[in-house]
Amino acid sequence: MRLSRRTWLTCLALYLIGQIFFLINIGFPAKQNFDEFHYVPAAKSFLELKESRNYEHPPLAKELMAVSIGVFGDNPLGWRFISTVFGSITLVGMYLWGLAVFGNQAGALLVASLTMVNQLLYVQSRIGMLDTFMMAFLSLAAAGFCAFWKSELDARVQRKLLLVTGICLGLATSCKWFAVIPWVGFLGLIALIRLFQSWNTRFAGVDSPKSPLNRDHNHNDGPEEFYSPALWQNLSLRDFIIYLGIVPCAAYFATFLPFLFFTKADGNGTFEILDLFKMQYRMWDGQMRVVTPHPYGSLWHQWPLMNRPIWYAFDKEGDTKQWVRGVVLLGNPWIMWGGLLALLYSFWEWVKTRSRSAFLILAFYGMFMFSWPFVPRKLSFYYYYYPAGMTLSLAMTQVLQCWNNPAHLRHWRIAAATMLLIAFVLFVYFFPILSGELIPSDSFRKWMWMRRWI
């Protein structure tokens, strides 16, 4: 499936807008910010061809940060420039994801616009943390997978989309292991659809009114239908093994190859191929050892309601400390809370019409959110909600899809503009404590709507 010239130009425009916007005031905080204390030294070690002490995470994000520091120096721009690049790529990925889910430019642009003022994207695009890079690859993988979820595509196009999806999944996993969740989720969804196809053929019959998958569709969506008996019929098990098994694994392990030129942390020579496999267990062991409580630690069920956001920085300035530059990771309340209602609407829409777009939105939010009770890591933070929070832009756009047609275009434009305007006003309101603006020391409290936000 080729992208049109208009789509390519839109991607370029979104990237440039994001890149310029994220770079404004990038020098603040002037010192290393939150988890940059872990990852900046790790990136500098890679520049020296030495193993870093931050061994509990895969290397790709730190390798990319090393390139940025090598180009711009050991300073705030060097630490964060590459994050602005991948934050901008995430914005493009969300646009392509919206295009794959909704199948029209208007819906995709609304997704991108809501994402731009989501606040989670803005803050994560201006700090040297692994999740920024992981989400860029995940958004592209999600776009590829959702574009692949169409029965009218021929096998050649489907294989190309699976190839892109597989590469991006492998690269996302090589930034942070959480990307294994959607990787396994994609395989599970494919297996589920294959099971439905088999069940339909064996017991109910494709055209049987008894089939729970054969519903009366009143919304005239055509390809919007969540399930088709023809879906992926031209692909074999071998295709899925190659593109969602071998390809992601190859992309993942390729990012470890630079270690063959690194000196081990203990100074005992360089790495060998076998060491790269041993490193996987070492990373797992390192993750299991992170058990020390943190003042900003939180539990997964607190994240959707923003009960415990994180102050990444709170630096006092002035002779009497009368000024402060703060950066708080806090989602846009309109999108974070309104998005939860939009998810409920999406569930109702899927139950009622078997909407493909509603199903995909719910599936992705479920992967990103409800996997956390089963993740064995003992310590968690609000920024783990970042991928799930991104899907809320899709959910809010889903609410307006019933009007996204020529007969109701005026209503759609008014509703979309209103939705975006509210989100934009709140983004501007919170901007001083998202961007490290210089504000009076005590004034930050006016943005603290809840006591636990302090």
Percentage of β-strand residues = under 5%
Low-confidence stretches: 205-223
Question: Could you estimate the helical fraction of the residues in percent?
Answer: 55-70%
Secondary-structure class: mainly alpha
Textual characterization of the structure:
The protein is mainly α. It has one domain. Helices cover 57% and strands 4% of the residues. It has helices at residues 5-23, 36-47, 60-72, 76-102, 105-116, 120-124, 130-148, 155-173, 180-204, 237-254, 273-288, 333-353, 356-370, 386-399, 409-430, and strands at residues 310-317, 323-329, 438-440. The protein has a three-stranded antiparallel beta sheet with strand order 1-2-3. Strand 1 (310-317) and strand 2 form a beta hairpin. Helix 4 (76-102) packs antiparallel against helix 5. The protein is globular. Residues 205-223 have low confidence and may be disordered.
List the helices and strands and how they pair.
Layout: H1 5-23, H2 36-47, H3 60-72, H4 76-102, H5 105-116, H6 120-124, H7 130-148, H8 155-173, H9 180-204, H10 237-254, H11 273-288, E1 310-317, E2 323-329, H12 333-353, H13 356-370, H14 386-399, H15 409-430, E3 438-440
Antiparallel strand pairs: 1-2, 2-3
Helix pairs in contact: 1-4, 2-3, 3-4, 4-5, 4-7, 5-14, 7-8, 8-10, 12-13, 12-14, 13-14
